[in-house]
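Whiteboard transcription, Tuesday session. T.W. wrote the structure tokens on the left side:
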């Protein structure tokens, strides 16, 4: 049986005029990317660019959802109901899934961010 090591990184966490990380430099060296879905980092434009960059390099794309906490980078405790949490995860993952679908690809995995794990 062949061994496979998945080199995974959190990507697409920039938003607006704020830049975080060196996605373009890192992407060619990983096999899967967890793309931020807008609640702790990322925005629609960054999500689209991250998907296209990952696909260009043959990198599997997964969603990286969080609680709606840009100021705390998704790391603060928030009092949310189980249904609210489900809605947040559905909303974020659905957005990334559509960027992938419109680019001819599909979602490969989900990795929760921050306080969610």
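and on the right, the sequence the group agreed on:
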């Amino acid at each position: 049986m062949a061994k496979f090591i998945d080199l995974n990184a959190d990507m697409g966490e920039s938003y607006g005029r704020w830049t975080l990380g060196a996605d373009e430099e890192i992407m060619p060296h990983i096999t899967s990317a967890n793309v931020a879905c807008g609640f702790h980092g990322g925005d629609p434009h960054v999500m689209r660019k991250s998907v296209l960059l990952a696909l260009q390099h043959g990198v599997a794309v997964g969603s990286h959802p969080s609680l709606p906490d840009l100021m705390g980078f998704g790391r603060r405790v928030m009092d949310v109901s189980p249904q609210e949490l489900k809605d947040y995860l559905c909303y974020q993952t659905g957005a990334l899934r559509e960027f992938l679908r419109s680019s001819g690809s599909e979602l490969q995995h989900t990795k929760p961010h921050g306080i969610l794990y």
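Someone added at the bottom: The first helix runs from residue 23 to 26.
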